[in-house]
């Protein structure tokens, strides 16, 4: 198959492009910096599968630049869908932040409540994909991923790279923990989300749209993740505690539907494996 990956220069996009190549497919990668809507018709004309990962993804930044986030995240998705042949299978990188926070495991039927311009723009892209598919367009699967982490993550604003930078001595500033570190999150190995793209490509039937919640189903507190980094690296991680902030106490996926429909499972997403793989790859 001919596979086009937008955002192929990014953390997740690189792994998605690699897994399709490993599976024997002809892969064309487009980086977000080279993403040009005027040339997409030619680029996507012969595509069998399109994996759309070109996006802006920082929640705090989106509040400072909502117009830019909507332009890239919704506008870019519109351009891709408009250029895709109707026979193509499209897999979109979406986000769990489209859902309302809940202490219960979050699945596809959870209420939607995007609380940032980033989340809102990604939900709008999902809904556009639903409507385009429903009008006879390409089949689309939206993968609503939890906290992707692991080897190759260059973003120091995310928790695993930030902790490893301190373990490596790349910065002497202590890692700031809000409150007591009891907030629980679901961490997903980058190679597990890449596997989900490969599995979803086989099921994106033309004229249909589906969304899947993609996570490990396992919760890890910030305090436990810090201890894991110390244990795996054998290094000290300086920490300072600040006041607690208003945030969900627990955000964990319910991946039952993607497991049942696609046979996918997060086989690498225990925290020790994520930290060890990221540490080795530094």
From TrEMBL:
UniProt cross-references to Pfam families, sorted A to Z: Epimerase (PF01370)
Domain of life per record: Bacteria
Alphabetical list of Gene3D superfamilies matching this protein: NAD(P)-binding Rossmann-like Domain
Domain NAD-dependent epimerase/dehydratase: 3-214
Family as reported in the entry's similarity comment: Belongs to the NAD(P)-dependent epimerase/dehydratase family.
Protein name: NAD-dependent epimerase/dehydratase family protein
Organism: Actinomycetospora aurantiaca
Organismal lineage: Bacteria, Bacillati, Actinomycetota, Actinomycetes, Pseudonocardiales
């Amino acid at each position: 198959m001919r596979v086009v990956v937008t955002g192929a220069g990014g953390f997740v996009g690189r792994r998605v492009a690699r897994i399709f190549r490993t599976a024997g497919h002809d892969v064309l990668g487009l980086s977000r910096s080279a993403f040009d809507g005027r040339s997409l018709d030619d680029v996507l004309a012969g595509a069998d599968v399109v994996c759309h990962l070109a996006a802006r993804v920082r929640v705090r930044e989106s509040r400072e630049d909502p117009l830019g986030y909507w332009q890239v995240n919704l506008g870019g998705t519109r351009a891709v869908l408009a250029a895709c042949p109707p026979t193509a299978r499209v897999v979109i990188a979406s986000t769990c932040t489209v859902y309302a926070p809940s202490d219960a495991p979050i699945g596809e039927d959870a209420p939607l409540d995007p609380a940032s311009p980033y989340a809102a723009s990604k939900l709008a892209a999902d809904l556009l994909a639903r409507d385009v598919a429903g009008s006879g367009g390409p089949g689309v699967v939206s993968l609503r991923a939890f906290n992707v982490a692991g080897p190759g993550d260059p973003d120091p604003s995310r928790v695993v790279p930030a902790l490893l930078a301190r373990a490596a001595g790349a910065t002497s500033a202590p890692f700031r923990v809000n409150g007591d570190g009891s907030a629980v999150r679901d961490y997903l190995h980058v190679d597990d989300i890449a596997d989900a793209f490969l599995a979803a490509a086989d099921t994106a039937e033309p004229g249909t749209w589906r969304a899947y919640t993609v996570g490990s189903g396992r919760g890890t507190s910030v305090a436990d993740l810090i201890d894991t980094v110390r244990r795996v690296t054998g290094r000290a991680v300086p920490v300072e505690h600040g006041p607690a902030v208003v945030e969900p106490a627990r955000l964990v996926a319910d991946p039952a539907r993607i497991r049942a429909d696609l046979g996918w499972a997060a086989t690498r997403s225990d925290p020790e494996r994520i930290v060890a793989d990221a540490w080795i790859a530094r």
